[in-house]
């Protein structure tokens, strides 16, 4: 119990640090922005603590199947950190900022072809946006896409090579997929594979849909992406973080479906060496 509470506290602090990263790195942060970010970080930290301190499932998926959530949090932190470095480099250039900007520029130029997500993202900017802001957005989008692809690659390696989730401990579908009811709607494997395909498809489509939604929201709210550095960092980070999260969820659900199928085959063969899978 004590170790579980300690782990929940550590995770809550990590979430608070991740959310506060842009405010800590971007120079000239106003007091109002700091207060808003702190309030959001506290709410997110309290939510994380309550989820991991509880024995019963809540809203966070794959809570007991590390490092699924750790990979996502690290990916978001690295993205926010590097994008904040890009924004802050306009005031004070350093060797790290030059390397980060050069890497983002190369990736951004490579991805800026017709009908690409990055090209669609850039075209949603107002026509009177200056060239420097467009170039900065291109660099940030390139970095965000690069980190997203690396995140997917790392998780795919964990799934295939290290047999994620860890087979040395029991995997409970109810705890790790709290919003998925395995007792309704037909065969659980069929439903898992269907939801997996839907999530993977959404992972491909979200980078195209989100810029359009952003443009519609900006028109109704009469705001612009480039008006605030904090807004730019968060929007570009979430532009790739949400699709990567959905894509990872699809991969994870497909893996769970494979585990259930393999266990059924062992049961049919009349051989179950060790019952380490709990379907509910």
TrEMBL record:
Which superkingdom, per the lineage?
Bacteria
Q: List residues traversing the bilayer.
A: 12-30, 36-59, 71-90, 135-159, 198-216, 236-257
Q: What is this protein called?
A: Uncharacterized protein
The UniProt keyword set, sorted, is: Membrane, Transmembrane, Transmembrane helix
């Amino acid at each position: 119990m004590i170790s579980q509470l300690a782990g929940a506290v550590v995770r809550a602090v990590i979430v608070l640090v991740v959310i506060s990263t842009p405010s800590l790195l971007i120079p000239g942060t106003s007091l109002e922005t700091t207060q808003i970010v702190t309030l959001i970080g506290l709410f997110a930290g309290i939510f994380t603590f309550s989820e991991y301190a509880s024995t019963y499932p809540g809203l966070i998926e794959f809570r007991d199947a590390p490092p699924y959530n750790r990979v996502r949090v690290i990916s978001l932190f690295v993205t926010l950190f590097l994008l904040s470095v890009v924004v802050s480099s306009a005031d004070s250039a350093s060797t790290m900022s030059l390397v980060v900007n050069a890497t983002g520029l190369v990736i951004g130029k490579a991805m800026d072809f017709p009908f690409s997500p990055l090209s669609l993202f850039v075209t949603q900017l107002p026509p009177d946006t200056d060239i420097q802001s467009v170039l900065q957005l291109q660099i940030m989008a390139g970095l965000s896409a690069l980190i997203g692809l690396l995140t997917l690659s790392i998780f795919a390696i964990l799934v295939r090579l290290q047999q994620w989730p860890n087979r040395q401990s029991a995997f409970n579908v109810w705890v790790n997929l709290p919003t998925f009811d395995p007792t309704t709607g037909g065969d659980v494997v069929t439903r898992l594979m269907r939801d997996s395909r839907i999530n993977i498809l959404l992972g491909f489509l979200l980078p195209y849909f989100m810029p359009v939604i952003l443009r519609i929201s900006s028109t109704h709210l009469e705001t612009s992406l480039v008006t605030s550095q904090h807004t730019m960092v968060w929007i570009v980070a979430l532009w790739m973080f949400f699709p990567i999260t959905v894509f990872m969820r699809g991969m994870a659900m497909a893996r769970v479906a494979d585990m259930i199928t393999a266990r059924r085959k062992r049961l049919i063969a009349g051989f179950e060496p060790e019952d380490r899978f709990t379907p509910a």
